[in-house]
Design goal:
This protein is of the alpha/beta class. It is about 30% helix and about 30% strand.
Length: about 325
C-alpha cells in the first residue's frame, strides 16, 4: 500500500523559478546550443553560477562539457542561446570578459623553452590586473621551480603551473576543464585543496568541469549534471541526494495461481504498491531495470514527499551521488 501527502506542483531544479536571484549570478546561460554537422553537442542548455561558489559541472566524456566551456570562453560561437556575464547580456565572450576569467584546460600547451618565471612574465602582459608577487607566491605554494623549463615539468607540475597562471591576475571567475585527468591521487588532492582554498579565501567563483564524481562531491557547493548536451539537474548535492530513491522488489518468473483464481500475469505479479509509484504525481522515473530476479526503479521527487511513501514488499533506499549520476546520465540498462 502506498501512502503519500497530497501532491503539490513540482518545481524542476532547472526551471526559471528554481534559479537563484539574478543579483547573485556571475555567469548565466539560457537556451545555449551548438551543433557540429548533424551532431548536437549542446542543446538548450540553461545554467546559473553564483558568485563565490564552486560549481561542479558533471557529465560523462562526450556529454557536452568541453563544448559548453569553449562557448563560455568565446572560443566557439553558439548557434543559439544567450550568455549573461555579471548581469549583462553578451553575444560572445569579448576581451574584457576574458581578462576576468582564469582558465585551466585539459591539456597544457606553453612554449617548451620558457621557464615557469618566464611564462609568468609573458602571460602578465595580457592582463592589466596581473600580480607578479602573487604569481611567485603561487609557484612556491605549488612547489614549482621558477627557473625550470616547461619541457622539463611532469604532467602534474604542468597542471599546477596552469593553475598558477590562471590565478595570478586575480580573476572574477575560474574555469577548470577536466584539469585533474592526468594527475596522480596526491597531485589531485593538492590541486583540489588549492582550488577550495582560493574559493574560500578570495570568494573566487569557480566553474569546475569533471567526470570524476568523488572530486565534485569533495569540492562543489552546487552541481550541474549534463547528459547528451542537456542539463539534467542543477542544485545542491545534499538536496539531490534527498530527492532520489531506489525502489527494489522481487519479480517472480511464473507465480503459482491461487486456489480457485485465474493465474496472475507477470504485470499483476509485481507489487501493487510499487506499480502505483509510476502514477504518483510529481515523481519522475530516472531508471528502470530488471536483473537477478529483481526490478529496481530509481525515482526523483521532492524530499518531503518521500517521508510518507510506504511500499509493501519493497526496499526503498537512498543513493550515493555516484549512483544518482549513473541514473541521470547513464545509458538505459538492458532489461533481462
Amino acid at each position: 500500500m502506498l501512502s503519500t501527502p497530497s501532491a503539490s506542483p513540482q518545481l524542476s531544479p532547472t526551471s526559471p523559478q528554481a534559479q537563484v536571484a539574478p543579483e547573485t549570478i556571475v555567469l548565466r546561460t539560457e537556451g545555449l546550443a551548438k551543433s557540429f554537422g548533424k551532431v548536437r553537442a549542446v542543446r538548450d542548455l540553461s545554467l546559473a553560477v553564483r558568485e563565490g561558489e564552486i560549481y561542479g559541472f558533471l557529465g560523462r566524456n562526450g556529454a557536452g562539457k568541453t563544448t559548453t566551456i569553449r562557448m563560455l570562453m568565446g572560443i566557439l560561437k553558439p548557434d543559439r542561446g544567450r550568455l549573461e556575464w555579471m548581469g549583462k547580456r553578451v553575444r560572445r565572450a569579448g576581451l574584457s570578459m576574458k581578462r576576468s576569467i582564469g582558465y585551466v584546460s585539459q591539456d597544457q600547451h606553453f612554449y617548451p623553452w620558457m621557464t615557469c618565471a618566464g611564462l609568468g612574465r609573458f602571460a602578465g602582459g595580457f592582463y592589466p590586473t596581473w600580480d607578479p608577487a602573487e604569481y611567485l607566491r603561487l609557484l612556491q605554494a605549488l612547489e614549482l621551480p621558477p627557473q625550470r623549463r616547461f619541457s622539463r615539468l611532469s604532467g602534474g607540475m604542468r597542471v599546477k603551473l596552469a593553475l598558477a597562471l590562471a590565478l595570478a591576475h586575480r580573476p572574477r571567475l575560474l574555469i577548470l576543464d577536466e584539469p585533474t585527468a592526468s594527475l596522480d591521487p596526491v597531485a589531485r588532492r593538492e590541486f583540489l585543496d588549492m582550488v577550495r582554498s582560493q574559493a574560500r579565501s578570495h570568494r573566487r567563483t569557480t566553474f569546475f568541469s569533471s567526470h570524476r564524481i568523488e572530486e565534485v562531491e569533495q569540492a562543489a557547493d552546487r552541481v550541474g549534471i549534463i547528459q547528451d548536451g542537456t542539463l539534467r539537474y542543477q542544485g545542491g548535492i545534499t538536496e539531490l541526494k534527498a530527492s532520489v530513491r531506489r525502489i527494489s522488489w522481487p519479480q517472480p518468473v511464473e507465480p503459482p495461481p491461487l486456489p480457485g483464481a485465474e493465474p496472475l500475469s507477470r504485470e499483476s505479479a509485481a507489487s501493487a504498491g510499487a506499480m502505483a509509484l509510476f502514477a504518483l504525481p510529481g515523481i519522475e522515473i530516472l531508471r528502470d531495470e530488471r536483473s537477478d530476479g529483481m526490478r529496481r526503479v530509481t525515482a526523483q521527487a521532492e524530499a518531503a514527499q518521500w517521508e510518507s511513501v510506504r511500499l509493501a514488499g519493497c526496499e526503498i533506499e537512498q543513493l550515493s551521488l555516484e549512483d544518482i549520476f549513473l541514473a541521470l546520465a547513464g545509458r538505459p540498462a538492458v532489461s533481462l
